[in-house]
Amino acid sequence: MLSATFQWENPIMGLIKGFKYGDKFAHLILIGILAYCINYLLKFKTIKRFNQNLLVGTIAITVFITLEELSQIWISTRTFDLMDLSANYVGIAIATLIIMKTKPEVV
After folding, report:
1. Owning domain of residue 71
2. Could you report the per-residue pLDDT of 56-107, keeping only the tens digit for each?
3. CB neighbours (10 Å) of residue 21?
4. Cα gap 33→27, rounded to integer Å
5. 107 lies in a domain?
6. Would you say residue 80 lies in a domain?
């Protein structure tokens, strides 16, 4: 995030940009890992809403990532991209599905 905002040279970003949709794949993987880690750190805590157990970490990361991506509208060195946001959501969904499959007692 910081390297993109401040346009710092980053060799990893150079590699990612070399692949078609590499940026989107990176969003999916990195945000998915972040979503899983946040839920892990919160010990897979859930809240009951709409007759469902919802993972607190999943809610938190979804809100944070949405606000972060939307903030790019007002940052001149960044570009809002709906496909980036969609890739983020897919990563969060995959992480949540993994949690649901591996920790059925949680959800």
Report:
1. 2-102
2. 999 999 999 999 999 999 998 888 999 999 999 999 999 999 999 999 888 7
3. 12
4. 10
5. no
6. yes
CB 8 within 8 A of CB 71: no
Note whether 65 and 80 are within 8 A (CB).
no
Q: 65, 78, 92: which is closest to 2 by C-alpha?
A: 78
Contact 8, 1 (CB under 8 A): no
| Full DSSP string of 24-88 | HHHHHHHHHHHHHHHHHHTTT-EEEETTEEEEHHHHHHHHHHHHHHHHTTS-TT----HHHHHHH
Instruction: Specify the pTM.
Output: 0.82
Q: Half-sphere exposure of residue 64, counting CA atoms within 13 Å on the CB side?
A: 12
Question: Which residues are CB-contacts of 99 (< 8 A; sequence separation ≥ 6)?
Answer: 36, 39, 44, 55, 106, 107
The predicted-structure confidence for 20-54, as pLDDT tens digits, reads as follows 777 889 899 999 999 999 999 999 999 999 899 99
The Cα 3–Cα 26 span in angstroms is 14
